[in-house]
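Lab manual, section 2.4: Encoding a predicted structure.

Procedure: take the sequence of the chain (265 residues), apply the prediction step described in section 2.3, and record the output as structure tokens. A sample record is shown.
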Amino acid sequence: MGENSKIQWTDHTFNPWWGCVKISPGCAHCYAETFSKRTGHAVWGVDAPRRTFGAKHWAEPLKWNDEAQAAGKRRRVFCASMADVFEDREDLDEQRMRLFELIDKTKWLDWLLLTKRPNRISDVMERVSHGSYGSAWNFADHMPNVWLGTTCEDMARAEERIPTLTAHPATVHFLSVEPQLGLVTPSLVQGARDVEWIICGGESGAGARPFNPSWARVLLDEARDIGAAFFMKQLGGARDKRGELDQMPEDLRVREFPAVAVGSM
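Recorded output:
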């Protein structure tokens, strides 16, 4: 749970459950797995149970929604920092149904669903909606406060995931190029011009793999080319101030958010 999240591109974080399975190079030094082990929860792996939560936890976003409405300002919720909403486990469908019902109730919150599994979105949504998910249903029309994102830590993952992500209509499509492990040029990928936002960052923490600022400069140019907002999160490494703008090269001090038509919410 994260009210007033320390993640610079969101206001809050919410986890419907904890736990996941590593599936690509960006997962190698997973901060969520490390944190869950540190807190005594063995929830990583195919056969591991997932940690779920009670009513008090699920009531928090309702409070955030009321506060946002009272302030007349939409708030962003990153979901889920300790899991993947579209992990292919049928035993999580009840939690997913609860999540989508919560999203529907919180119209003043923009829910940022970041997944490494955009290929599972259709199957999961069809199962959770008891078969009603199909060509007549999409996030843009039926859950306009959902922003769909995928992680593209390298070019192979960009080529694999971007077309699948943007095939699902949504108010905002976004890419998290973090941890960036190499050059990524989304403009060369089918569907990239439907991306409205790109987040860039190096790997952080112990054992962080090298990050080259020139990759970020190319990605910034790419964002300009496809008409996407660009958010430079951090330079990576174990430095305490790696995420502060004044620690970055001057030309990379860019933190933009996508323009969203609030009236459609």
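Check your result against the sample. Residues 6 and 12 are 8 Å apart (CA to CA).
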